[in-house]
Amino acid sequence: MKQSIPSPTPAGRGRLAKRLRRTFGWFFNLPALLCLALSSAVLISCTTTQRAPLTLAAPPQIPGATFVGNQACAECHEKIHGDFPGSPHGRFYRGDDTHWAPVAGCESCHGAGSKHAATGLAADIVNPRHDPLACLNCHVSTHGEFTMPHHHRVLEGRMTCVDCHEPHGQKTHQPAAGLGLQQRDAVCTQCHSEQAAPHVFEHEALREGCTACHKPHGGMNRGMLVQRDANLCLRCHAQIQTGAAGVFIGKTDHTGFLRGGTCWSAGCHSAVHGSNFSPRLLY
Ligand code: HEC
Ligand code: HEC
Ligand code: HEC
Ligand code: HEC
Ligand code: HEC
Ligand code: HEC
Ligand code: HEC
Fold first, then answer.
1. Which of 181, 228, 233 to mutate to test the pocket of ligand 7 (most atoms within 8 A of CB)?
2. Of the candidates 163, 182, 209, which is a domain's last residue?
3. Eight-state DSSP code of residue 216
4. Greatest alpha-carbon span in the chain
5. Which helix (H) or strand (E) holds 249?
6. Helix (H/G/I), strand (E/B), else coil: 227
7. Which structural domain, as residue segments, surrounds residue 204?
8. Is residue 58 part of a domain?
């Protein structure tokens, strides 16, 4: 069906733009998807040699099923369907046409839904909790992070994306797929309670969150640190050059110390997450 678009008189231009955006809103986000897809092509082809070749950002395959669109899920999953537009993934598509459904709707993660919508059987739909590739088809650079030398073992099946990310956007007070700032650390400390335990001598750095120092998925450095040496700490602790090669951090002359290694090794500030004994976080 063709749509007639009124010619843009100056007065009508704003309205037209709005209308275009409403009709083709998807299109404005398309570049984001295309970038993801393009980088997929490159990365997937060089990292997953042993796996069967993947089609670009193809949704999970369900033999014999066809795409039905989000509206078809609403009948039985009313709450999820209602919450979904509030999630970052739900921004793109909320209709019932089957054109965008495979790349932006429920079925982009769950696979084509016609069979399941008819039977209601779990066997006829994909649950990405059991298959991170359903997410990584699109998030290729994230895939790369999980293959770094130090990483959370998601690809090995010990953890899932859902341990940290909320896929449908129920928790609207947590923007970014359940990654609002407050929530971020709660997400980590459900497993790492020791690091977040209250300490007599807190390290204020923790108020900025775990990701001030750690990469959440994986990285090149031990402990998934964002930087591997003293530079990690010097990002926040001003270093004052005095004279020829003198270095002061706080009120203490660190000139000799920094040559000795990282700030937290060799008996220095080893209590980086806080200490019950040492105000200088020595132990
Ligand atoms: C006719 C009702 C009905 C419709 C329509 C329906 N579902 Fe379901 N769905 C169910 C039922 C019932 C279950 C619980 C199955 C079970 O636990 O065995 C379920 C479970 C699921 C699960 C969890 C499967 C698992 O492994 O635990 C997912 C994912 C799902 N549905 C997605 C969808 C999507 C996406 C759509 C739209 C394309 C959809 N459903 C449409 C009835 C429906
Ligand atoms: C970004 C990928 C993604 C999209 C898009 C998505 N889901 Fe899910 N869905 C998941 C993941 C991951 C789980 C597993 C959640 C868990 O186990 O906690 C899941 C679980 C489910 C379940 C099982 C019940 C539950 O809460 O665990 C149903 C039903 C479901 N989804 C329906 C839908 C419907 C309907 C839509 C569209 C309105 C949708 N999903 C869109 C990723 C997605
Ligand atoms: C250990 C918890 C954890 C797990 C497991 C996890 N994530 Fe994340 N993810 C995070 C945190 C925390 C951020 C926010 C990072 C930031 O803002 O610095 C994030 C950010 C992201 C982003 C936004 C872009 C970016 O990298 O900042 C994407 C996309 C993402 N994760 C996808 C995934 C996928 C897909 C999986 C599963 C294969 C996954 N994540 C598993 C914690 C996790
Ligand atoms: C069909 C492609 C596709 C699939 C499948 C997909 N995503 Fe995304 N995801 C995107 C796009 C596109 C964005 C960027 C949204 C934006 O910028 O508004 C995004 C954004 C995100 C973000 C960042 C949210 C933010 O606000 O920064 C996280 C976290 C994320 N996805 C996690 C996941 C997880 C976990 C799964 C699997 C359960 C998944 N994605 C599956 C396409 C996908
Ligand atoms: C579901 C549980 C779980 C959650 C949630 C979780 N982790 Fe972990 N984390 C683990 C496990 C298990 C290990 C042990 C190492 C492994 O699996 O190889 C680990 C290891 C680590 C390590 C040490 C890695 C190394 O190379 O020594 C760091 C640092 C870490 N996690 C930080 C975080 C941060 C930051 C978050 C939040 C964004 C987080 N974790 C969320 C389970 C979790
Ligand atoms: C000021 C920077 C900083 C912050 C903030 C931080 N960490 Fe760490 N973390 C480190 C350093 C440094 C190590 C030691 C890494 C190594 O060399 O093994 C470490 C190690 C870890 C380890 C490995 C086990 C251990 O204790 O050595 C885990 C798990 C961990 N951190 C979790 C967390 C969590 C969870 C948070 C947020 C509550 C957090 N970290 C915040 C700097 C930080
Ligand atoms: C995100 C910023 C940030 C990072 C990164 C950071 N710190 Fe801190 N640190 C602070 C703040 C804020 C304080 C409290 C104010 C102050 O004393 O400078 C503090 C206090 C300290 C103190 C107590 C100083 C005193 O005399 O009271 C020590 C010791 C310390 N940090 C060591 C480290 C080490 C070691 C690292 C690297 C593993 C590190 N910090 C990384 C922000 C940070």
1. 233
2. 163
3. S
4. 78
5. strand 246-249
6. coil
7. 193-260
8. yes
Mutational pocket test of ligand 5: of 156, 159, 190, 192, the residue with most ligand atoms within 8 Å of the beta carbon: 192
**Is residue 248 in a domain?**
yes
Is residue 275, in this structure, part of any structural domain at all?
A: no
3-state secondary structure of 112: coil
Written in H, E and C, the secondary structure of 147-187 is CCCEECCCCCCCCCHHHCCCCCCCCCCCHHHHCCHHHHHHH
For the Cβ of 225 lying below 6 angstroms from any atom of ligand 7, the answer is: no
Nearest CA owner, ligand 3 atom 6: 161
| pTM confidence score | 0.87
Write the residue with the smallest CA distance to atom 24 of ligand 7.
Answer: 280
Q: Are both 36 and 76 inside the same structural domain? A: yes
Residuewise pLDDT in 10s, the chain (283 residues): 333 333 333 333 444 444 444 444 444 444 444 444 444 433 333 333 333 333 346 788 899 999 999 999 999 999 999 888 888 888 878 778 888 899 889 999 999 999 999 999 999 999 988 889 999 989 999 999 999 999 999 999 999 998 888 888 766 445 444 555 556 677 888 899 888 888 999 999 998 889 999 999 999 999 999 999 888 998 898 777 766 667 788 878 887 787 777 889 877 899 999 999 999 898 8
Nearest to 85 by CA among 133, 1, 41, 25: 25
Lookup result for tokens 């928790």: 171
103 within 8 A of 3, measured Cβ to Cβ: no
Task: Flag whether 66 is in a domain.
Answer: yes
